[in-house]
Design brief:
Radius of gyration: 18 Å
Shape: globular
Number of helices: 7
Number of domains: 1
Helix content: 40-55%
Order of helices and strands: HHEEHEHEHEHEEH
Largest sheet: 7 strands, mixed
């Protein structure tokens, strides 16, 4: 009975989440056309609403740990579900993403992605995409912001393993920026697929930054065990046993 109720509440939460996106877009889009920072205000407002409504409707509270980066850095984050995106964007000042080119055509999301400076890449042409990624990021380097990238390239379930792609290391070396690793356990409560959202405490933890200036090889050897170890620790704290 309790599980059935949680499914119903989860469905209500998901519906209102997308309705809220539409309503906020109607409100914010005209403002964002004329005011420079309004697009950031819009995405911050939406993400904070999702966090608050998740706590109220499905009992999924959320917490940010560690020092939130506000300078121009790369954030190399563990990606388990849409909720870790929501949590990070809700607290950093000027978020921008390395994102699939196809998302630019998504209603509402694509337009706001352009406004906040996200970097689209064609993942079908990997080497060309890497060069364009670096060039596009460098072209916007005069504007402070936090470039968020997911080293595994996709959502990965809690407890699952997937090798990190070298793209994050190339960006780190080419851009000469500090990197702030970010771990999470959100996949324990908000899975990649399905409707059910479980009650509990979802955490995103910003880990100590990796200073600029290292090699790609040194960086890649460091980032994966750092983020994976911290994410496993957070999952265990949430009672995750590796059995789903």
């Amino acid at each position: 009975m309790r599980t059935a109720l949680q499914y119903v509440l989860s469905f209500v939460f998901i519906v209102q989440m997308y309705v809220s996106m539409f309503v906020m877009a109607i409100y914010w889009t005209p403002i964002a056309m004329f005011r420079k920072n309004a697009a950031f205000d819009a995405v911050h407002s939406y993400c904070r609403w999702v966090r608050a409504s998740a706590a109220f409707l499905v009992g999924l509270k959320s917490e940010i740990r560690g020092e939130v980066p506000m300078d121009e850095v790369i954030i190399a984050a563990k990606h388990q579900s849409f909720f870790d995106i929501i949590m990070i964007v809700s607290v950093v000042s000027r978020p921008k993403f390395i994102m699939k080119k196809e998302l630019l055509w998504a209603p509402i999301v694509g337009w706001y992605a352009k406004k906040i400076g996200c970097v689209p890449v064609d993942r079908g042409r990997r080497s060309e995409a890497m060069k364009k990624m670096v060039a596009d990021v460098k072209a916007g380097a005069a504007k402070p912001g936090q470039l968020i990238i997911y080293p595994q390239g996709t959502r990965v379930a809690a407890g699952a393993k997937k090798s990190y792609k070298v793209g994050v290391g190339v960006l780190y070396a080419e851009l000469g920026q500090d990197c702030v690793p970010a771990a999470t356990n959100v996949g324990v409560f908000w899975p990649r697929h399905g409707i059910l959202r479980k009650p509990g405490l979802a955490v995103v933890e910003f880990l100590p930054r990796i200073p600029a200036g290292g090699s790609v090889e040194t960086f890649m050897a460091r980032i994966e065990p750092l983020v994976e170890g911290a994410s496993d620790r957070l999952a265990a704290e949430a009672g995750f046993t590796g059995k789903g």
